[in-house]
Amino acid sequence: MAAIATLKDLYETLSPGLPGAGAAGLDRLRADGYARFLADGIPTPKVEGWKYTNLRDLAGVSLAPAQGTIDSAANTDFDVPSVAPGETHRLVFVDGRFNAALSAVGALPQSVTLDSLRGLIEASPATAAEVLERFPAPKADTGLRVGPNPGRGQALGLVGLNGAFLAEGAVLTVGEGVKLARPVEIVFIATAADGAWHPRLLIDVAAGAEVTVAEHHVARGGGATFANIVSGVRVGEGAILRHAKFQEEAETALHLASVTATVAASGTYETFVLTTGGRLARTDVQVRLQGSGAQTRVSGAYGVDGSRHADFTSLIDHVAANCTSREVVKGVIDGRGRAVFQGKIIVRPDAQKTDGHQLNRALLLSDTAEIDAKPELEIYADDVKCSHGATAGELDEEALFYLRARGIPADTARALLIAAFLDEVAEEIGDEHLRAYATARIQDRIGRLTGITVDTDAPVLGE
Amino acid sequence: MLEIKNLHATVDGKEILKGINLTINPGEVHAIMGPNGSGKSTLSYVLSGRDGYEVTGGSVTFQGKDLLAMEAEERAAEGVFLAFQYPVEIPGVSNTTFLKTALNAVRKHKGLPELDAMQFLKLIRAKAKSLNMNDDMIKRAVNVGFSGGEKKRNDILQMAMLEPSFAILDETDSGLDIDALKLVADGVNSLRSPERSMLVITHYQRLLSYIVPDHVHVLAYGKIVRSGGKELALELEAKGYAEFGSPEAA
Ligand SMILES: Nc1ncnc2c1ncn2[C@@H]1O[C@H](COP(=O)(O)OP(=O)(O)OP(=O)(O)O)[C@@H](O)[C@H]1O
Ligand SMILES: [Mg+2]
After folding, report:
1. Same domain, yes or no, for A311 and A410?
2. Does B40 contact ligand 1 (Cβ within 6 A)?
């Protein structure tokens, strides 16, 4: 990557100005991150898990902090996406920078905190460093030493890069037993023509607590920006976290996200990722089910056309017994678009009674659309139920004719079938706000893809 | 209404229809009977415009227009309706979404205003009720998880909603229980009018005692080999198709 030399300059120039610079804990975290990046660099196709997504384009991307053309501190005119307008606790970032004016945290119950990382650091660098270290660290490998394959980990180079510039991000902690009524939203708005941001998102849901989090990544005039997001998630005993990410950036944007989640006994981590923006977008989710009875639901929907690229990579690690995981990822690929699905389920020796299912389906709308699917099961326990399936196909001709034979024009019929295909993923979402929003965003994307507005919201019957 | 002249059609290069001639006047109900594989469904697909059915000769005129020149959706909008022998399951598309989209597309084509959600609901509820279909069935994904008979009723519901001027019923009676058969027949009969014509494909005379045809035709090996009145159905039921020969003879 050509930018490494420049990156050194950048690191040396920017470091002293980052919040909390000089405080021992933070300096060390950043130095570690930088060292890690220098050691691992940007992953190449030779690195396991990166065979199908080539980051060579990163060479031409500006890693300098994005400079919005708009005075984001003063501007409150943005159309800020929301799953429930006016009824969420939200933090907003413009071009990667926390924007207090647009944020609206509102009243939170005691024992719930929602802070911008910058705010936390400015208040107390030492506390911030402590908080940062509390979260599960992404691992380069899974530490599994049985079997032929140590298990793919996350790209520590990217995580290191994120750490080197650690300054922005969001920290949500939900205290024991608290059920937060309103969703939390973390919104990233891109306005800059280029430039990068490296936010850290941390979510800690204590035992018995319950919360819904929606993460948005949108462009309001933004261009070839680069978002390199690292998230740490902890779900406590019996806690429930519903986490949705809506990635809808500009068609020239680059989006790379690494999520590491741990789930304690009987806890539930539900995550949904919609990927419809960016010229290259990858979400890499690792979930460790580490207490008995922990559950996870990982779902994803994507739509790519042109020569865009979407990558959904996941690792579900069944560490403890009696855990269940269910993964459904579906996407639509048109033009010369390309998608990657890599889904691995590991069942460790102690994870008896594991129930793990994975499904990946791709709809190819053109002859030049491409999908690389790599489902993997690695099972080291004997009393388990696991399955995976991957299919790639075209629109069902019979269904298409059935619709047309009722008078529905061909392009509308296609749009309806595409919407139906993706809506099935939205059905995986437990939270109704998130589900309705996901459906609407999917329809919006299909509308832009096909030029047809479909309304799959059946009129409400029965009242 | 419909004039089929010397219609030839192939599927995957194999000639299935070998010169069909049939004229259906407004208000008439014609029945087509015939052995398995004789081309009855093929004829219905050719008339409704399914891809993959290549017309290699002949013509079809519908209400003065060249039917074969139209896309499937245009034919539907012009008033052609096919009740499928095997209605298709469409996961993820609800019956209501499907029918509302279809109805409004057809209305638009006819220059009628589109129905809003409430008007649509009122209409579909009334039609569904007369076919003994409940709210649950009209809300569910199109035909998904429907029993064989429910699928057929669902097709007839679509017909009742779209009010076509020419309906082809391809073995709509197969898989229906006795009560459902009566309901479906009532549904079909209620649509009978001097302006509306039907082509009823069936293997059983029983349906024709409910939907009484004006003419009965035998389609065997790609050709109409005999035509008659409603009594022909009774005769066929008694004697079978042996007298019409074998595929080699055709
Ligand atoms: N895709 C295809 N490729 C080759 N042959 C086909 C194809 N589709 C239909 N056929 C053949 O065309 C012939 C007519 O089929 P069709 O479905 O029209 O018969 P049918 O009269 O409706 O029979 P049934 O009473 O069993 O419904 C059959 O021999 C069938 O095998
Ligand atoms: Mg047939």
Report:
1. no
2. yes
The finding on whether B42 has its CB within 6 A of some atom of ligand 1 is yes
Residue B76 in contact with partner chain A when CB distance is under 8 A: yes
Q: Which structural domain, as residue segments, surrounds residue A56?
A: 2-394
A35 and A162 part of one domain: yes
Pick from A125, A128, A123, A78: which is nearest to A99 by CA? A78
pLDDT for B236: 87
pLDDT band for position A49 (cuts 50, 70, 90): confident
Render pLDDT for B38-69 as a digit per residue (tens, 0 to 9): 999 999 999 999 999 999 999 999 999 999 99
CB B222 within 8 A of CB B18: yes
Strand partners for A355? A324, A385
Length of chain B: 250
For the Cβ of B148 lying below 6 angstroms from any atom of ligand 1, the answer is: no
- Do residue B97 and residue A412 have CB atoms under 8 angstroms apart? no
Query: Do A246 and A281 sit in the same domain of this protein?
Result: yes
Same domain membership, residue A445 and residue A303: no
Mean pLDDT, residues A256-262 taken together: 94
Task: Name the residue among A406, A419, A458 with its Cβ closest to that of B76.
Answer: A406
Gap between the Cα atoms of A416 and B142, Å rounded: 12
Q: Express each pLDDT in A122-152 by its tens digit.
A: 999 999 999 998 887 666 655 554 444 444 5
Domain extent at residue B203: 2-244
Question: CA separation (Å) from A267 to A68, A77, A239, A241?
Answer: 40, 39, 5, 8
Q: Is B111 on the interface with A (CB under 8 A)?
A: no
Which residue type occupies A300? G
Check pocket membership of B36 for ligand 1, CB cut-off 6 A.
Answer: yes
- Overall domain count for chain B: 1
Classify residue A183 by its DSSP letter: P
- Provide the number of structural domains found in chain A: 2
Closest atom of ligand 1 to CA, residue B35: 25
What is the number of the ligand closest to the CA of B50? Answer: 1
Which ligand ends up closest to the CA of B220? 1
List A residues 401-460 in contact with B (Cβ-Cβ < 8 A).
401-410, 412-413, 416-417, 419-421, 423-424, 454-459
All residues of chain A having their beta carbon less than 8 Å from the beta carbon of residue B102 are 403, 406-408
Token code pair at residue B72 = 């499937």
